[in-house]
Amino acid sequence: MSSRPRRRILVAVVLVIAVVAALLVWSANRGEEGAGTPSGPPGAAFYEVTAQQLSADRHGSLIWSRRVVDGPTIGGTTHVVMYRSTSAKGEPVAVSGVVSVPTGDPPEGGWPVISWGHGTTGMADDCAPSRSLVDQQTGVYTASMDQTTADLVDDGYAVVRTDYEGLGTPGPHPYLMGQSAGAAMTDIVLAAHELSSNLSARWVAMGHSQGGQAALFTSRFTDAYSPGLELRGIVALAPPSQLGAVVEMTGSSTVLGASEKEKAAAAEAGSGAAFLGPLIVSAARTSEVPVEDLVSPAGLKLLPQLETRCIAELFAQDSFGGMTLDDFVRDGADLSRIRRTVGTNDAAEVHPHVPVLIVQGTQDTTVPMMLSDRLVEQYTKQGADVEYARVPGADHISMLRESAPTVNAWVSGALAG
What we know:
By secondary structure, the chain is α/β, with parallel strands linked by helices. It is built from 16 helices and 9 strands. About 40% of the residues lie in helices and about 15% in strands.
């Protein structure tokens, strides 16, 4: 054989190898269902995104995703995802979460979507619910949410669950900053549509506790912010509200500008620092007010725990659970410096333009019923389409199970229009 045919054969072999290698690289770097979506790195590196990757596309777009094949079973086909959203300061931010899509053939128009907002898990990265699928660190509350997700997927819903800004991903979590959480709950719906073509444009925002507040804020992220999506309703289960009144009441016997009902609701919210301490810290950071101007020396000593402990540990006596809010706040602190930020992120300041169901346990001591009573009054006065379901004898957690039939029926009706 002459040298020319041999060279041709060699070139052909090299080309075949190059094509096969390119296909292998493409296959390894695409999501299981996403059209060319890169597969994120394993372990904790999944949560690390460069500035260049973040700026490569708009909010609601996928950065990468990875199908979950091991770990807890939460129904359907499940992916952990990293997507772009909007921070508490209105800037681009990477957020992690979970997308679960039913198996089988979708109904006409695609699987309807429920965006689930989780309750308080903490502010440390290890407290992110998606971590249970990445490194199998499953807490009791996360396990409960996994079961809730599995039930909803079995009922024929695609369920998306954001971790919120700063949970799992680098940077502080802006706790109870509803503006950020509402954007995250909306953007993961957009990202899920990029991951799967079998999803409906119709969706419902549903959340518990902190997630109930976040769900209410999705009402601010419709129309031009999320083109192509149809938010059909919001379910807020024991949502915290009246936060502005609570903050203003701290260290004072009066609440400036508040009604008697708002004062009473604020008083019933309690004086512990476990929830409201992190809120003040987050509001200060969002407002760019030095934290040390608002937090006492004893409170400052606890702040490192926000990056190392989850909610159960933060309630310990050697942590936020052992300190009153008045002791946490610095003597003479001017909390009016964060009042606007707290107010902007208070569910009481939202004006919902879609139907809303608020669910509240009558024996809830974490989010007292008086807060939801007042919130329903405020929404009704606005002319909002709001329904209120009290669950007799239920506390902050048991109300999830006991209200399920009511919630499921309401969601089905909302999605049906």
